[in-house]
Amino acid sequence: MRSGNKEINSFVAEQIIQARVILDRVLKHLSADASSAVTMAPKQHDQKLTGALDFSMPIRAFIKKYSGRMSGPKKFTLMLAYLAKGNLDKEIMLTDIEDRWNRMTSKSLLGMKFNRFYSSQAKENDWVHASKQGSYHLRPNWKSILT
Description:
Elements: H1 2-38, H2 42-50, H3 59-67, H4 72-84, E1 92-93, H5 94-101, H6 117-124, E2 128-132, E3 135-138
Antiparallel strand pairs: 1-3, 2-3
Helix pairs in contact: 3-4, 4-6
């Protein structure tokens, strides 16, 4: 029975060594990509969010500049903020937000199709309010998405 265990242990050890070789290659590749990504100015992203938002920009440039690494609900709030030009009293129809969103699904912009779940999550975080069905306006707390 011991000789069988030696064979199993030898096989397992060999498999672990092969897995480690593969993992080392992957980690080496990822660290090379990460070092080049680090040089692509993540600090610039942080600087963008500290100043006042420029609502005079075209919508695609605005979204690209400020959306960065935001989640879907934050991007929803950002889109609403752009369409309302930061005005807390201006109501924007959900269909307008969804229509504009789905024109900007490339990775450099919003990166995903619109999901109505985003609006409910934005409401739960007190960034937006729906005064009537299908119509949203910003809440005073909406700027917390920028931090």
